[in-house]
Structure to design on (149 residues):
């Protein structure tokens, strides 16, 4: 379900998407994105809330490589699979709060429990990190075959 509401102050970050998983007692949210003041620095934010939506824990993790923001693309074997804006793949384990690379090559699997929800970018993200601006269409008058002025 897309809500666009992020249960974490986003003044310093752009969140691209997030994953959530829950049990009878808590809900865990893991957000992927980047720093507003340094778009090359990816961030992962982990939030744990109780059933009354009170935040129990909130932690920010900087990605080990400065390769742009990260998007959560999959989950397998308790690892969230992240891809940076420049295509570098890495994994984050929200249970032990550590990043992993793919040197072992065994993290990918079909999508497991939880929900992957894409959020729209906030306000106006820096264009240099997302691509070039597309020009607006222009008005071009069409010829007319009407003989009367």
């Amino acid at each position: 379900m897309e809500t666009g509401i992020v249960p974490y102050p986003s003044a310093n970050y752009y969140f691209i998407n997030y994953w959530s998983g829950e049990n009878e007692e808590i809900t865990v949210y893991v957000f992927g994105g980047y720093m507003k003041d340094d778009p090359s620095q990816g961030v992962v934010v982990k939030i744990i809330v109780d059933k009354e939506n009170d935040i129990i824990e909130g932690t920010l993790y900087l990605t080990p490589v400065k390769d742009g923001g990260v998007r959560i693309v999959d989950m397998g074997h308790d690892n969230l699979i992240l891809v940076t804006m420049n295509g570098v793949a890495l994994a984050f384990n929200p249970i032990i709060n550590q990043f992993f690379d793919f040197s072992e090559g065994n993290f990918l699997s079909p999508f497991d429990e939880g929900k992957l929800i894409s959020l729209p970018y906030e306000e106006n993200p820096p264009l240099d990190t997302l691509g070039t601006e597309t020009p607006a269409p222009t008005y071009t008058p069409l010829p007319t075959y009407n003989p009367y002025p």
Remarks:
- The chain is about 5% helix and 40% strand.
- The two ends are 56 Å apart (CA to CA).
